[in-house]
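Hey, weird one. I pasted the sn-glycerol-3-phosphate transport system permease protein UgpA sequence into the form twice and got a warning about non-standard characters only the second time. First submission, copied straight from the form history:
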Amino acid sequence: MTATTTRPGGSVRERPPGRRRPRRRFTGRDRHDFWVFLALVLPNVALIIAFAYRPVLANLQYSLLNWTLGSPTATFIGLDNYVRFLTSPSSATILWTTLVFTVVTVGGSMVLGLLIALALNRRVPGTGVARAAVFSPFVLSGVGVGLVWLFVFDPTIGVLGSVLRTFGGTAPDFFNNPTLSLVMICVVYVWKNMGYAAVIYLAGLQSIPRDLLEASALDGASPTRTFFKVVLPLLSPTTFFLLVTSVLNSLQAFDLIRIMTPLGRGTTTLIYEAYLQAFGGYNRGGYSAAVSTILFALLVVFTLVQLRWMEKRVHYA
């Protein structure tokens, strides 16, 4: 087989078989660029190792110990912490609560965010103010948002209870009823995060070529058919990105749960169970580390499944 090389100007020169291309010499400029590259990359790699990978490995080590938080001694017990969690009667409830919270908050944020983005994509007066108002809850502190919403759901002094009593109803007890507590947390979490999904979807809508929408209209397609057959498939990269990031954020949601339901009655997800076991009075550091490791494994599995299977359905224009 004859190898070829391209000369400047487009002409092609054949290279005799068996004759290798001469290796490019490592010049002084290349060495300078290499050292600059190392000077820029190595500090960041060191920080990632120190503050990202090292805590993960340390958490994995603690999960194999019978260790009371703050105690100077610990006993190696192997996988007993994992076995105790997986065989505990409360584990099924915790996993179910985590699943319901993730599905409801991710689905609610994305659906409402898409509907808001469709409304904000129209050229009407006040669109800029509306976009800022929709996105602002996402940048607010979760602690502050939770405290404000407590004055809405409080059965005694809350706004919702006052309105219901005005019309002859009774105020639901959102704090002591586990099901209502989970509903309350989901509503507040969706309200806080749907603005993020709306802004990302709005950017996706504005990147769709107008030619495709005009061609669809000329072919007589209705707005509904155009949305499902043209717009929604072209938004699939945006939907895929939002799905991955929203699932990861929901599985790590903590601040709203801690502020609105500190006892975790009906709202104990995996990450909140890890907090309660370590800092909620039990001081079981090893057991908490095992719960955190299980959550980390679920995050990795969900991400890999989404990248492996769902990316095939994404249409990149």
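That's the output from the first submission. The warning seems to come from a hidden character in my clipboard, not from the data itself. The CA atoms of residues 106 and 246 lie 6 Å apart.
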